[in-house]
Amino acid sequence: MPAVEQSSDRAVRERPAAYRHMRPLVLTAVGVGGALGAAARYGVSQTITVQANGFPWATFAVNVSGSFALGMVMALLFERFPPTRYVRPFTATGFLGGYTTYSTFAVETDLLIKNGHAHVAAAYVVASIAVGCAAVWAGLWVARVVPRSTRGARA
């Protein structure tokens, strides 16, 4: 057996028993979140009409709103709330990973180019990246600006 596999197997065996037993539950949280996120994406795609060879507004809206939500989730879960074993994998990896869609973005871009609409494809790629990055930043900013709870604070 190669040295890499031996060290990996040893690392798994040396993990605390509680950690080894929790892994299936974390995977379940990711799976359930992903299923819900994919269903939400489908719902959005059914409400936004897109013309053939036109700008793919449905996928653009999903990816931008998902980017914004990921920015908020990163700030809220990582900076404000104590670590949890299931909320982060469910929300960030599962739900938002299932909600946003790079594969559809890539296929739509490819189809636009193949159908002779390279200018629309270029606008789609540039807008998706630029607006997506701005949306993550905006989500981080909004989550950091929202006042923290004042429960228990003295006036």
The end-to-end distance, rounded to whole angstroms, is: 65 Å
% residues in beta strands? under 5%
- Total individual domains: 1
Overall average pLDDT: 86
N to C succession of SSEs: HHHHHH
Helix content: over 70%
Shape: globular
Q: How many beta strands in the DSSP annotation?
A: 0
Low-confidence stretches: none
Largest sheet: none
What is the CA-based Rg, rounded?
A: 20 Å
**Number of helical elements:** 6
What can you tell me about this protein's structure?
- With 155 residues, the chain is mostly helical.
- It has one domain.
- The chain is 78% helix and 0% strand.
- The protein has six helices and no strands.
- The longest helix has 31 residues, at 17-47.
- The radius of gyration is 20 Å and the shape is globular.
- It starts with a helix and ends in a 10-residue tail after the last helix.
Q: What labels describe this entry?
A:
single chain, 6 helices, mainly alpha, 155 residues, 78% helix
Protein topology:
Elements: H1 3-14, H2 17-47, H3 57-80, H4 87-99, H5 102-114, H6 118-145
Gist?
The protein has helices spanning 3-14, 17-47, 57-80, 87-99, 102-114, 118-145.
